[in-house]
Write a structure and sequence with these properties.
Elements lengths: L6 E5 L6 E2 L2 E2 L8 E5 L16 E6 L13 H16 L4 H6 L8 E4 L12 H13 L7 E7 H7 L10 E6 L10 E8 L9 E5 H5 L3 E4 L2 E5 L3 E3 L1 H7 L9 E2 L2 E2 L1 H9 L4 H4 E12 L12 E2 L3 E5 L2 H18 L34 H7 L11 E6 L1
Helix pairs in contact: 6-7, 7-10
């Protein structure tokens, strides 16, 4: 892959008077130094050709009675309906050809953090791979990737995928000591809390190997961002040293999520968003070690605009929290903040000031549409 002239860009913030219910000015936004050798595509993958459009496919048959078993045949039908509806194609294979050719090398960004209950599910990942092979890719051209090897090993996609598909993790675990799989020339630099390492580098496969990326996030609550979906999965899942953005009740995820997602070539190569909403977690996320806070939207969302999908996700998570009598993800009251408490100890306690405004901030960077009045949702039942 041809390397381009080195560029350094000082990122600027979208200076809206407010984001959600929070007033934002320039002093709230850290200074970001972005280093990338890659220029954007003529039409970047985010927001892509279907800006502001979301297809939501729901089926009560996709899960067993208790939500523990997934019906793979129903998931296949949901996937086929969703892709055809998004693209307007009559045939499923033609829908996938809108995005991929036999010459592509495709990375599939899964999410394994919510293991075992809220992860990019085996049937959805397997169906994505099946369709990539159907349009002419070889198994060796398909990678399923995540940041941490221990999480990827636990979820164990291998038995569900054809031989030759690569399972890749950038680090052994979340310890900040494995750097060999990150690109030293593609990074974002920012000092949040005076930390020693102020640089977050992009995974080397993204910058140097993949030509296209499919993002498969989940519907999850998150203590720093309020909800974690498309934007955070592709941003924090593709760079090193990102957990440093939230510390002792303070979160800089408002601006960092969108800033990372917008770095080339990640922005241009991420061409398809498939939100796995078969299961979700309404509190204690992004983890789901038990079913205690798990709920069952039984939904898969499709689009190219990560902002539009995540804007819908904010309401899904917030509405579920309200059904359980928990405080809103938009709650910024000092009395709800106690950063000495365990993450999932009390649904009415925040360990961090949540930043659901990261979705609107990303919209200000041109990554998609956050205005609900402009988002067009097609809802299908299978």
């Amino acid at each position: 892959m041809k390397r381009r002239t080195f560029m350094q860009i000082l990122a600027t913030s979208p200076l809206a008077s407010s984001i959600g219910s929070r007033h934002v000015d320039a002093s709230d936004i850290p200074k970001y130094l972005i280093a990338s050798e890659y220029k954007p595509a003529a039409e970047p993958g985010m927001p892509g050709p279907y800006r502001g459009q979301v297809v939501s496919v729901k089926s009560d048959r996709c899960l067993g009675e208790k939500g523990e078993q997934i019906n793979a045949e129903v998931v296949r039908e949901m996937m086929e309906r969703g892709m055809r509806s998004l693209t307007g194609e009559a045939k499923t294979q033609d829908a996938w050809r809108r995005f991929f050719t036999p010459a592509d090398v495709v990375g599939i960004k899964v999410n394994c953090g919510g293991r075992p209950w809220v992860v990019s599910s085996h049937p959805i990942v397997a169906e994505v791979v099946r369709n990539l092979l159907a349009v002419g890719l070889k198994p060796s051209q398909v990678y399923v990737y995540e940041r941490f090897q221990n999480q990827l090993d636990t979820v164990n996609y291998a038995p569900h995928l054809p031989e030759g598909v690569t399972l890749f993790a950038a680090e052994r675990g979340n310890r900040g000591v494995d750097n060999q799989n990150y690109d030293p020339l593609t990074y974002v630099e920012a000092d949040f809390f005076g930390e020693d390492d102020t640089r977050s580098n992009m995974i080397r496969l993204i910058s140097q190997r993949f030509t296209k990326i499919i993002n498969i996030p989940n519907m999850k609550d998150h203590g720093a961002t309020g909800a974690t979906g498309c934007l955070k999965n592709i941003a924090y899942g593709s760079f090193s040293n990102v957990a440093r953005t939230h510390f002792k009740g303070v979160s800089h995820t408002l601006s960092f999520v969108g800033t990372l997602a917008g770095v080339e070539p990640l922005r241009s190569r991420t061409v398809l968003q498939i939100m796995d909403g078969l299961r979700g977690v309404w509190h204690g996320g992004p983890f789901a070690p038990t079913l205690k806070y798990v709920f069952f939207p039984k939904t898969i969302m499709f689009g190219t605009d990560p902002v539009a999908i995540d804007r819908l996700l904010l309401d899904i998570i917030d509405d579920e929290r309200k059904r359980h009598g928990a405080i809103s993800i938009w709650d910024r009251s000092p009395q709800s903040l106690n950063n000495s408490r365990a993450r999932d100890a009390d649904p009415n306690v925040n360990i961090l000031i949540r930043e659901p405004g990261h979705v609107e901030y990303a919209a200000g960077l041109g990554l998609g549409i956050a205005d609900l009045k402009q988002i067009k949702v097609r809802e299908l039942e299978v």
